Amino acid sequence: MSGLLRSGKREFFDASHAHPKSRTRGVNSTAARTSAFAPVRIPTLLIFAALVLLPQALYAARISELTDTSLTERAVRFFTFQDPSLRFALLGSVLLGICCGLMGSFLVVRKLALMSDALSHAVLPGVALGFLWNMSKDPVAIFIGATIAGLLGAGLVQAIRSTTKHKEDAALGFVLASFFAVGACLVTMIQNLPDGNKSGLDKFMFGQAAALGRADVILLGIVAVVTVVIVLLFYKEFLVTSFDAAFASSGGIPAQIFHYVLMVLLAFAIVSSLQAVGVVLVAAMLVIPAAAAYLLTDRFGWMLILAAAFGVATGAMGSFLSFVGRNLPTGPLMVLAATAVFIAALLFGPRHGVLAKWWRQRSQSARIGRENMLKAMYHLLEGENFRGETIPIRELAEARREPIEDVTKSVAKLRAHGLVSFSSDHKAAVFTPDGWKRACEIVRNHRLWELYLTHAANYAVDHVHEDAEKIEHILGEDTVRQLEKRLNYAHQDPHGKLIPGHQDIYGKGPVRQGAR
Amino acid sequence: MDGETPLEVHDLSVAYHKKPVLYGIDLAVPAGKLIGIVGPNGAGKSTFIKAVMGLLPLSSGWVKVYGKSYRENCRRVGYVPQRESVDWDFPVNVMDVVLMGRYGRLRLGQRPGAKDREVARECLEKVHMLPYAKRQIGNLSGGQQQRVFLARALAQESDLYLMDEPFVGVDAATESAIVTLLRELKERGKTVLVVHHDLSSAKEYFDMLMLLNMRLVAFGPTAEVFTPEKLQTTYGGRLTILSEVVQTIGTVEK
What we know:
- The complex is a heterodimer of chains A (516) and B (254).
- Chain A is built from 23 helices and 3 strands.
- Chain A has 516 residues and is mainly alpha-helical.
- Chain A has a 3-stranded antiparallel sheet.
- The chains are: A mainly alpha (516), B alpha/beta (254).
- Chain A binds chain B through residues 109, 111, 233-237, 239-240, 242-244, 246-253, 294, 297-300, 302-303, and chain B through 50, 53-55, 71, 74-75, 77, 79, 81, 85-87, 90-93, 96-97, 100, 103-104, 106, 108-112, 136, 152, 156, 162.
């Protein structure tokens, strides 16, 4: 009987897994279409990729809940989306993701990330006192108590900073630890009371999304709406006071007031997220999605949107994993999901990502290799006084002190870039017009720079070659024009070699006739 | 007292942690002048302009801008803070920063519109930074960053400008661009106060000088104020630069 049930279950699993996949594909193609108009295409794709996780989380989370009920009931629940505890958990996670993402962005750009840690620990005594108010887990009482405790903590940090010689880090450390200690004592005392172990206060440490009730979600909803509306309404003020508070104040925008508004919104975000994420890790839900967004964009508006999207995705992932893992604490799982997003941003970010940097470095060193080969070819032609046009591979190999096979490969790469062509027997190379132009430019850059160093910067003639070897690849045309002008359009470098001029490079023939 | 004096300061004193930084400054700045604020390190030059704008609490005295309190007339004042005072990795581009110059003119919650963007573009053009409008501000040289700050101040379309060390750490091209800009502002009847650290160029750049060392040592036309005795008093004789500069003045004036 039980075996039968189990196999039935497996079928159900498989069937439902197929469904989210097809759904995923649909969302993906929307993402591709939508990204066409977006100014930051890759971050946009990432948002959608993150959002794709959501439906999967939804379906899979339901599955784990369904194991204890009958098949028909499961089917009904599945299709009517009526399981309240799951609905509350997911909705709550999504809402807290929005709040935390938005507030976290402000913390990151204002360098207040540690403030969120202190605030989140400081709220714990407030949670306990809120519970003691009428000996129940009344979300409103806990919200009020925790907010007051949090703001008290923030005020205390401010007071320590302005009245003692301690700086912010010491003040934060002190407030974080002492408030948390008081809170931990109070929570333990409550749990030692008769019926205290049913209080559910222990869930406030590491969070349990499954414990979210209707009132919790309504509270989160209100906080999310208030946060979004205030951020949208006063975006301009928040932007300028975050970037340059003194300038904002000088122009009549009260930076201090907006700072306090942010702190209050931050306290709201922390307090309303406590039940789901827990006191210990809520700071990470604030900082990590925002830190990931910071790596992906150079515009603050986009950072807010990305951070909120990451917050939503990681919140949903965390509560999903918590369901699958049967009451694993939600907070750590959300933070792990957020960390995964952060690492992905760190690796795959289009501009600041590790991979993108590596790729840029690689393509640059490949370009430098090509240009050095072109330069060697130029030198060979120059050694013949530009009488011929073909460069034997063997001579090139001798000049480069490399095996013929390697040089042939390098020349083949040059050909792939349209810079040279092979002679019919593949034993010699000939410049294409593009290749000749580039070779002249490189030689010109090198010699101009040598001349500049010896003339204008008083370097000794034997000290300039190595520097020019690097500079030749990165000099822009503007700088070259300036150098030429500064050096009076000189024809000879410090070693007496000719500097290709504008006419030689961009004029007609590929060969400069006769040295002077 | 009247509405035509750009800046009037009476008995202004500022203290940090009860340690006085500025004492009893009295000053009436005439309109349409380029004024350099000069003094040694720690003389309170930046403190002075911050105190004028109400960014620091005064321990005594008052400030009037065009005859009214600073707060009432803050729209008529443009400000260029020190370049190091902000985080240049902040996720904004050049255009975003210049648009901030328009924020003071907008209502609470109102976003900058097409006209504000046009003004911002014009201001960027004046400092030759329009091609960089979409650059993230961290990808600019020091001189370019300073020009962005100047463009932001220009976008404020003010009558009185307060600039904190705009010449620090900029290249020669930016320095001459700033000087041209200052002269242009003056020709349009604006008043500009510039905190300046370089005595040798101060004489050349400014119509009037304000010599400051915790108290106002002298304020007046450059020719009258830039004398060995007054500079000596300002710098307290402890600076070698001073004796050098004083010597060069001596040779020039003979």
